[in-house]
Amino acid sequence: MGSLMNEINLKDFYIPNYILSIGSEGESVSHLPVCPVIAFINSKSGGQLGGELLIRYRALLNKNQVFDLGESRPDKVLHQLYCNLGILKDNGDLLAAHVEKNLRLIVAGGDGTASWLLGVVSDMKLPHPPSIATVPLGTGNNLHFSFGWGKKNPGTDRQSVESFLSQVRSAREMKIDSWHILMRMRSPKESSSDSIAALELPHCLHAFHQDNWHVYRGGFWNYFSIGMDAQVSYAFHSERKLHPENFKNQLTNQKAYLKIACKQGWFVSPICHPSSRNISNVVTVKIMKREGIWEDIVIPLSIRSIICLNLPSFSGGLDPWGDPSKNKLRDRDLTPPYVDDGLIEIVGFRNAWHGLVLLAPNGHGTRLGQAKRVQFEFHKGAINHAYMRIDGEPWKQPLSVEDDKVSIEISHRGRVNMLANLPCRAKSVHDPSSTHSHSSKDYVDEDDEFTEEYEVVKKFGAASTFKYFNTADTVHYQ
């Protein structure tokens, strides 16, 4: 009886070949799948776990509904699938209509892999886009943790995979803000499109050469960061790429990450890194809280890293924004950090020791503000490159030292559908059950440093949509 139950349960997720590929031999389907799924697995994530998980899913489901991201791009797979569904629906196929309505996606990998699929689904602009569940196979797994899918690598045995599929079937849909990022700088006279094509950018970021400009645009769902945290992450990813044999599992990776952070001087940054590279000496940060009104925000002189955060998870499950008290919300004109309210939280860190306060109850970084849009304007000639990171994927960005208009602008783009499991840390502004508890006093009140500097200054008055450049984006730069 147990074997029969497992078979019936697995049929709930099964998609026949003729749905997946037009021209395949027709099948007689006696069981209507309650939760048809398409699974994308990064076989290179999680050491050997990605490959093992790929084998397991293909054994339990139709192997043709399980894709290795090292061999199949999700945009090509999904475009073909929805093309097939459209043709079958036009021919009156009821199963095709059912699959399209109830389809859910599974993506197994780290934050970068999950964001890749989110970008593809966002770009397709489907009338009824599928919701996405994530299997944590990365080092941080922040997106996975935010929506209740855990942060530890999963089991690859049959029981673990079947349990996960059952959770996917019962998970609730939840929307999440997506954010557009646009960076522009004048290109040197001797520069060409080849110079930006050679950059190793995150999946969700695309480079262009237009007239005399280098343009970079893309999207993110969890965070964008700039500064020392991205520098450490870049060093880690570079080392892993050179010596993949030394990065076999999650625990080993986390130890290696900590070792690199120490080597990079993230724990002793005042000694190892000149203050000239502190954020306030490199960029001016502006935010738009109300439509059409830009205002400068004060960056404490000691801040070496800034994070624009959409989800309550960063660096392996820590929450840099925390849960501001009611007094803080009122005095600083802040709102609770929801993932679908069209606002992004901006947090600063001095060094790794500052980051460790997140381990304490109610610990948080230096809250700099919330905004609908954020802009970084680099000081002319301050630095010739900057380390940046989007949703777990870091890169080293060359900057034009001759240009006084090197800018990055982040703006709200829209929303995509996630699947939320219990316990889900992400909170929705539209969900009455999404409530925040506010302590009467924060455990580590790093905002005091920010408030003091702000008061002093105040006294003196102070994915395919991502692949094509839109001239409307240049309005702010004219």
TrEMBL record:
SUPFAM superfamilies: NAD kinase/diacylglycerol kinase-like. One of its GO terms (molecular function) is ATP binding. Monomer. The keyword Lipoprotein does not apply. Keywords: ATP-binding, Kinase, Nucleotide-binding, Plant defense, Stress response, Transferase. It comes from Cucumis sativus (Cucumber). It comes from the Eukaryota. The keyword ATP-binding applies. Residues 32-185 form the DAGKc domain. It catalyses: a 1,2-diacyl-sn-glycerol + ATP = a 1,2-diacyl-sn-glycero-3-phosphate + ADP + H(+). Phosphorylates the second messenger diacylglycerol (DAG) to generate phosphatidic acid (PA), another important signaling molecule. PA is required for plant development and responses to abiotic stress and pathogen attack. May be involved in the accumulation of PA during cold stress. Belongs to the eukaryotic diacylglycerol kinase family. This is Diacylglycerol kinase. Its EC number is 2.7.1.107. InterPro entries: ATP-NAD_kinase_N, DGK, Diacylglycerol_kin_accessory, Diacylglycerol_kinase_cat_dom, NAD/diacylglycerol_kinase_sf. One of its GO terms (cellular component) is membrane. One of its GO terms (biological process) is defense response.
